[in-house]
């Protein structure tokens, strides 16, 4: 996937040990980037769908992370 064009909004996801990933609004939708691998994972149509994708990319059994807009 090529690097998406970012716009003004970013949400950082925090688990018990700290930041686990982020969601970025782009011209095409929302992209997820995990701290563990640093790559963008698809384009999602809504923030809620992107949040679900980020949680799904976490270690199985992980609690839902807290999302903070930056």
TrEMBL record:
Name of this chain's protein: Methyltransferase
